[in-house]
Amino acid sequence: MSIWGKIGGAAAGLALGGPLGALIGAVAGHMMFDRGKSGASPQHTQLAFTIGVIALAAKMAKADGVVTDDEVMAFRQVFSVPEDEAGNVQRVFELANRSVDGYEAYARQLAGLFSTEPDMLEDILDGLFHIAKADGAVHERELEYLENVAAIFGFGEADFARIRARHIRPDREDPYVILGVERTASDEDVKKAYRRLVTEHHPDRAISRGLPEEFVKIATDKLARINDAYERIERERGH
To answer: Which of 41, 50, 95, 132 is the most exposed place for a label (fewest CB within 10 A)?
Structure first.
């Protein structure tokens, strides 16, 4: 079963808990609350990831105060939701929009669930960036929203600049920002940063974690930018 399929009836038996659990519980037809930790199970991990992306995308659509059909369609364009799950995804999106819980509550729950897997949190940010730029640009309020979510996830300014650089200009053209290193970094430190990013963001990791194929594509694009940045630095330094 695809990760999207877990949003429907198959998800009803999972006690995700917290504001994300309330969303999936409402879609499944009853509220599911479990105050214990739910991050260990692969099913919980995949479910939390999926619902978290939908919820934060819904809240981002409200960043400018109005949710338009174009913003809802942007999500559908970025994520190829199967037709038999489209209704469930739409309901989660709408419920998150109407929820009294702020985006901070969703972001904090995800930060806790993936506290030992920051690359998963970075994947969520990458997905949100892709949704934000679906209309051709990441707007000021969307960028502020993304920066706030990144801060809740535990990413500092330099980390956010590195993530942002993969998606929007002007930093997108700076290979040092993309690798998250200073221009004065030694060759060895540049190589270490490059190898770490390749390991963290290789598409095979997204596949092994059972993430939607859209995130495998995002990871592939991300890896290409990381490789390109490293190659540009190597050429610049005459290697």
So the answer is: 41
DSSP 187-213: HHHHHHHHHHHHHHH-HHHHHHTT--H
Show the tokens assigned to 85: 């799950």
Distance CA 42, CA 184 (A): 41
Average pLDDT, the chain: 78
**Which of 49, 7, 39, 5 is CA-nearest to residue 24?**
7
- Residue 151: CB partners within 8 Å, gap ≥ 6? 160
Q: What values do phi and psi take at 198, rounded to 5?
A: -65, -45
Instruction: For 105-120, give one letter per residue: b (16+ CB within 10 A) or e.
Output: bbbebbbebbeebebb
For 9-51, write each residue's pLDDT tens digit: 444 435 567 888 777 777 665 334 343 444 445 566 677 788 8
Q: What is the CA radius of gyration of the chain?
A: 18
Residue 81's SS3 state is coil
Rounded-to-integer distance, Cα 212 and Cα 89, Å? 13
The full set of domain ranges for the chain reads: 3-236
